[in-house]
Sequence to fold (234 residues):
Amino acid sequence: MSADGLLKMSELAQRSGVSAGTIKHYLREGLLGDDADVVRTSRNMAYYPPHYVERITLIKRLQEDRFMPLKVIKGVLEADPDRALALVDLEDRIIERALARRETVRVGAEEIRRRYDLPDNVLERLAEIGVLTPDEQGYDADDVAIIEAMVRFRAGGYDEALGFTVYDTLRYREALQPLVEEEIRTLLARFAGEVEPERAADIIASGTEPLRELLGAMHSKLLLAELRRQAGGR
Fold:
């Protein structure tokens, strides 16, 4: 390190955990911003500002964890690097919370078979199409809720005899996917840089059950309205 705190390339690579070759590529692509703070003492020697460490680390996280191409990363960083970092921290905290919940609530396959009257082939098909995502430890809380719903559906008459199969669940997943994507964009846009990641994760977690109730109630209203509309059309 130089007397004024600037870093040699080798020091920059060591502190960021990114190779010198990769850092040089970032420099060529203009990803590290204005190089006015770079002090070049010769053709092959330069010293770099310490804040490059955080910037390089963020770029690597966006590349490896978010699978973002460098062109997109450059645009994000040019727009607002602080907000980009806040978004990453917020997403990481939410994902960490979700994964912790999934790992602490697991029900084994044998227990599922004992507890619920659902044929093995139905469980297998739901897993094949990605509606259920069991692992070697069993099923997470959301999987169990889906299984319970399927059992109630079948008990109410939604069975194969009337043409209802596990593939009908795909209709709901396909409808929900764009809604969830928009929800995530909205939440992150409102929380990032405004709310601490821990607090944002708490807010999102507390909204899970009310959201389920809201969607259920709105679905019920829309179902009745559509039945009335079709009856009126006839």
Summary: Residues 90-233 form one domain. The first strand starts at residue 39 and ends at 42. The longest helix spans residues 208-233. DSSP finds eleven helices and two strands in the chain.
